[in-house]
């Protein structure tokens, strides 16, 4: 049998049915138990290659747990299969960039952005100095996230939006295939949030990077995501394109009485 993938020149002129590329990550029947409680229940979902997938749901429904299971930080039953040619049985940082929901380092440490990159990239003590190659790479990454020339800014003086950009820049090294962003714009004012989401879209388009984005901001998701996964009490409630999923009926199932304010695409993007 001839398939699109094996088409020869003789069949190349025929119109063959389009075979969609496999998802970058196929999650099948994934269950996670933490502290004796079943947190994720038989989650089956696809993370579309090169697209932005938004993950939504109420506080405590299991969004962060799902991200951590996908990168192998939590044990799970079921399957997480990466279709990218690398062995992801133990995902390595070069394959997956992760901006966590909470920073586990103290942002008040007396460090500059250059120092932070020095610690993260060269893994040698700061008193030895930050190597030139690290400064060059950090400078290029800062350019990419819209913070040129800020290598020597102390991190304790950065705004929330700037700090998130620095964390994003760290997650972009070395060129990941999958970028996981767990509420990356929480706590940032509206103007900076919009700029941050615009930046994510630009990076997604320019680098073809697959992004999973946890967010409670349905307007931003409507404007920027290609796919939406809805979690409710640890199970998938619905998944599909934003225009299919962000309907009053679905949202009331996922969020109940706590449905966030949301204007449909036309209204959200007007003006
Ligand atoms: N290490 C753990 N041990 C036991 N229970 C945990 C652990 N981590 C998370 N949980 C529980 O799992 C559930 C899901 O937590 P998770 O952090 O994944 O939710 P979330 O959807 O990311 O919520 P939020 O929107 O508040 O970030 C919660 O009830 C939480 O208390
Ligand atoms: Mg969370």
List low-confidence stretches: 1-9, 266-271
Compute the gyration radius: what is it? 20 Å
Query: What is the CATH homology-level superfamily of the domain at 21-105 and 176-260?
Result: P-loop containing nucleotide triphosphate hydrolases
Q: What strand line-up does the widest sheet have?
A: 5-6-7-3-8-9
- Residues in helix, %: 25-40%
On the 0 to 100 scale, the average pLDDT is: 85
**How large is the count of helical segments?**
10
Distance between the termini: 52 Å
Strand residue content: 15-25%
- List ligands, each type once: adenosine-5'-triphosphate, magnesium ion
- Note the main sheet: 6 strands, mixed
CATH topology of the domain at 21-105 and 176-260: Rossmann fold
What does it look like?
The protein is α/β, with parallel strands linked by helices and 271 residues long. The protein has a domain at 21-105 and 176-260: P-loop containing nucleotide triphosphate hydrolases (Rossmann fold). The protein is 33% helix and 21% strand. The protein has 10 helices and 9 strands. The strands form 2 sheets. Strands 5-6-7-3-8-9 form a 6-stranded mixed β-sheet, sandwiched between helices. Strands 2-1-4 form a 3-stranded antiparallel β-sheet, covered by helices on one side. Helix 4 (132-144) packs across helix 5. The longest helix has 18 residues, at 190-207. The relative contact order is 0.16. The model is unreliable at 1-9 and 266-271 (pLDDT under 50). Magnesium ion binds next to helix 2.
């Amino acid at each position: 049998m001839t398939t699109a993938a094996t088409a020869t020149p003789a069949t190349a002129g025929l119109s063959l049915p389009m075979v969609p590329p496999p998802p970058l990550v196929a999650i099948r029947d994934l269950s996670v138990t933490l502290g004796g409680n079943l947190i994720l229940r038989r989650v089956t979902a696809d993370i579309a290659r090169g697209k932005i997938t938004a993950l939504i749901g109420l506080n405590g429904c299991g969004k962060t747990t799902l991200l951590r299971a996908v990168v192998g930080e939590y044990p799970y039953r079921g399957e997480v299969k990466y279709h990218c040619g690398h062995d992801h049985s133990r995902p390595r940082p070069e394959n997956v960039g992760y901006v966590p929901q909470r920073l586990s380092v103290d942002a008040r440490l007396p460090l500059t952005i250059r120092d932070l990159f020095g610690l993260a990239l060269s893994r040698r003590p700061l008193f030895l100095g930050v190597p030139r190659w690290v400064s060059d790479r950090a400078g290029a990454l800062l350019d990419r996230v819209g913070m040129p020339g800020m290598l020597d800014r102390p991190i304790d003086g950065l705004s929330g939006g700037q700090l998130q950009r620095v964390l994003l820049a760290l997650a972009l090294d070395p060129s990941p295939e999958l970028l996981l962003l767990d509420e990356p714009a929480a706590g940032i004012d509206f103007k900076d949030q919009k700029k941050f989401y615009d930046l994510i879209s630009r990076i997604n388009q320019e680098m073809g990077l697959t992004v999973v984005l946890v967010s409670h901001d349905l307007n931003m998701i409507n404007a920027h995501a290609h796919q939406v996964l809805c979690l409710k009490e640890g199970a998938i409630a619905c998944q599909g394109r934003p225009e299919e999923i962000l309907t009053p009926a679905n949202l009331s199932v996922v969020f109940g009485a706590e449905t966030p304010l949301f204007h449909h695409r036309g209204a959200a993007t007007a003006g």
